[in-house]
Design a protein that fits this description.
Elements: E1 2-8, H1 13-17, H2 30-43, E2 50-53, H3 57-62, H4 64-70, E3 74-76, H5 93-99, H6 101-109, H7 122-139, E4 144-149, H8 151-161, H9 166-169, E5 180-186, E6 189-197, E7 225-228, E8 235-240, E9 243-254, E10 257-265, H10 275-288, E11 293-299, H11 303-311, E12 315-319, E13 323-329, H12 334-349
Parallel strand pairs: 1-4, 2-3, 2-4, 10-11
Antiparallel strand pairs: 1-5, 5-6, 7-8, 8-9, 9-10, 11-13, 12-13
Length: 350
């Protein structure tokens, strides 16, 4: 009998910034690294023979929870990827709610009928996920394997293994980031012993439990979308529905570093946890310009601004008596990802 642990990736940029990331290669957030460390603690004493992951950075980074601690290589395959969302990739969910609402609702509650240009059909995702897990299980008879994958792909696979149709899967819950599902495989097939367990996460490290879309019948949540400023490259108007409520701007980058020059929300939009979504737009734009670091320079007396930037994941990079330079790294460098995991893991081990 083979045991397979299916594990959803930790909180990534799409989860935090509320953007549609299927095959888009998003990075793990600061909270995500803490989730990975908690997952590593859960599996610290568990015997694991092999680690598999989708080939996207967010799953490979999450797989460090077992690969790094147990000294195992990470074997990657694109068959474990999230559903590709085609022309939706890196759009904000609020933009989709405003301009493609019918298909967004189908994505949330009628996935079997959903399709967009350049995207995958969910039936095809189901088939490739089944094929991948069957192949992995067959390659490891009487062993224990950890498989790192993605939310929608995982939900579809687990529901299918439980005998559900795509329509029935629509009614099943979504797994928390780093949630674990346990399968067993033998000559009779693959069975789900239990699913979607995130008991290793304290409440303050959860992601989905905090998000409004999980409580809405149609899965649509309020939020903001962005409209390029025709008069200034790298500057975006922030819109809630059709009302402009702020601005975010990124200056052209040099040596992989882009400057966040403006981040503003009107009073009417404040207090709704929307500021982090402006950071997401800045990260997305900077990455498209070839920059993996976002820099912000604030006057030292701007205590609120410094506090907010720290909340958004920025770290102090340089200080003078007058100014504080803060930076947010959102690149894919493997050594830096390992260092971030090691830092979070050290905190758990203290």
């Amino acid at each position: 009998m083979t045991t397979v642990y299916l594990i959803r990736h930790a909180e990534a940029e799409g989860n935090l910034y509320r953007r549609a990331h299927g095959h888009y290669n998003s990075a793990i957030t600061a909270r995500g690294y803490r989730q990975i460390a908690a997952l590593a603690k859960r599996f610290e004493q568990e015997h694991i023979d092999a680690v598999y992951s989708s080939d996207l950075v967010r799953t490979q980074t999450t797989a460090l929870a077992i690969a790094r601690v147990h000294g195992l290589p990470i074997r990657t395959t694109p068959e474990l990827r999230e559903v590709g969302v085609g022309v939706w990739e890196d759009r904000t969910w609020a933009w989709l709610a405003r301009f493609d609402r019918e298909r967004l609702v189908a994505f949330n509650v009628n996935i079997g009928a959903w399709e967009v240009e350049g995207g995958e059909r969910m039936a095809d995702v189901r088939d490739r996920m089944l094929r991948a897990v069957k192949t992995i299980a067959a390659a490891h008879p009487n062993e224990t394997v950890a498989v790192f994958t993605h939310g929608m792909a995982l939900r579809t696979l687990v529901g299918t293994l439980q005998g559900l149709s795509l329509a029935e899967i629509d009614k099943t819950p979504h797994a928390e980031n780093t949630a674990v599902t346990k399968l067993v495989s033998d000559e009779t097939g693959i069975r789900v012993l239990w699913r979607d367990d995130a008991s290793h996460l304290p409440e303050e490290l959860t992601t989905l439990r905090r998000q409004a879309w999980t409580k809405a019948r149609d899965g649509v949540e309020p939020g903001v979308w962005f409209e390029p400023d025709a008069a200034a490259a790298g500057r975006f108007h922030v819109l809630c529905e059709d009302e402009r409520v702020g601005t975010v701007a990124v200056a052209p980058g040099v040596d992989g570093v882009a400057d966040l020059t403006e981040l503003r929300l009107d009073a009417s939009a404040q207090g709704r946890n929307l500021g982090i979504r402006l950071v997401g737009q800045a990260v997305s734009h900077a990455r498209a310009q070839g920059c993996d670091t976002l820099r912000a320079v604030l006057p030292r007396e701007n205590a609120l601004g410094l506090h907010r930037m720290a909340e958004y994941g920025f770290r102090v990079a340089e200080e003078t008596p007058e100014r504080v330079t803060m930076a947010l790294y959102s690149g894919y460098d493997g050594a830096r990802r390992i260092a971030s995991f090691d830092e979070a893991w050290a905190e758990v081990e203290r």
